[in-house]
Amino acid sequence: MAEDLPLHTLSLCGANIVKKHTGALLMKFASRIKTDGYDSTENSQGIVDFGVSENKLMFDVFEKKLAEPKIQKLAPHMLFYDVMAGNMRFRGALAEFLTERLNAAKPLDPKNLRVCNGAGPMMELVATSIGDPGDCLMMPMPCYGGVFWDVGGRAEIEVVPVHLTSKMEEGDTRPFQLTAKKIEDTYNKATAEGKKIVGILLINPHNPLGDIYSAELIMDILNFCHKHSLHVIMDEIYMMSIFDTEAKFTSVLSLPNIPDPQRVHMVWGFAKDFCMSGMRCGVLYSVNEAVNKAVDALVYFNMIPGPIQHILTEIVLDKEWLDKVFIPTKYSRMREARSYMCDKLSALGIPVRKSPSGLYIWADFRKYIQPLTPENELVLFEKFMDAGVYLTPGIEAFNCGEPGYFRMVFTVYRDHLEVGMERIAAVLKDCAENGLTKPQGANAEAPASANVKEESLEDLLGLLQGRISSSGWLEETRTQNWATQNPEALEQFKQAMKSQEGSGDK
Fold it and tell me: Which DSSP category does 9 fall into?
């Protein structure tokens, strides 16, 4: 917890980063899952993870693939420095792969492609390149909660929510539907409040809703952003996680007439579609040379190791394996796991959002949360954690504007899936019989955001002392310097003193 740390030993920047990180529910509980995760033989009382969006269904397939001699090959150049934004063999393979998989309007140029150690870090690099601290990116909510850290942690870009709700507005065909009008209304409201909007960040297919945006909606958004000179960051990290064979995915790079290509930036990665979040590889495609140059400079801190680039190169080049083994096996297993979870939820009376993509289900637990309040959503979350199952609550994790919704990841090991659903059923049975009561067990925890307190007086005093002794503060704030730098304030001070003197004579 932030209040337990000696924050006065840090810079203001360091202290703020600690508070942001410890205040994020996803950051706190994701680390707890990794240290106390369920294992049928080693830790049967551990926590079943339905919260972290990872696809764990394909390890056996990758175990065989990664054992192939051509992938195991080690060349001298892999052990030394290389082009920080990705060696050209890797970028060439990715350009060819993405041209085909995204149905790109024209072949992608490897010179416009950059890679770094994850899609989240790539978001940070792009956000840093297009916005200044305090600038804003719009984003539909509910949304992947990590984006607040991706663009706000160090880049200090603020996120302005485009709120989507379960109540359908005029023209909507389903709950939580994104429209260009909602984006425009949000933009107008934010700019009227004095906020500087530099762009919009979209996840397509969506996380956590699982929706796929139509070509018409994407073009409407692109035209709106072009009108206001806004950047569009299109995160397509789930573009190969579409298990519904009838669904049609439209990549922004498949559109032939993008109105402002210099402000459109596509981000993708291996974590979700290739079931390998630990390999850490995010991809950027942008035709904006200035953005690419900025990323080239920043990616010095985010280079992908040479051996990993080699492995991923060989994987994307093996089209036969992708089309005949990996993709059909993955989709078959995803459909089976999703069907199992949906059937169990249906038996419990939990509606789920009908969606064609993603590793997760958007589930409606409102009937078990009475009265229906944000506080009680967290009570149910704590009860799940106390029972040993982790699923992410809509408000705290995804900035959903109303309580009652949880995201549940179904791409987990089968025994985890079965045990986790049994634990959820037990919690809901208890709620139905005894009502929603706050867990009293030793393991019950309040969300991190509720526990992050303001700095203690000791922290504040220590921080001030450090500033005074190490930054020339006394010299910078001498009366003469202050008066020179703040003439208007000085004049107001003089006038106030005259008024005070005059009142004293009366």
Answer: G
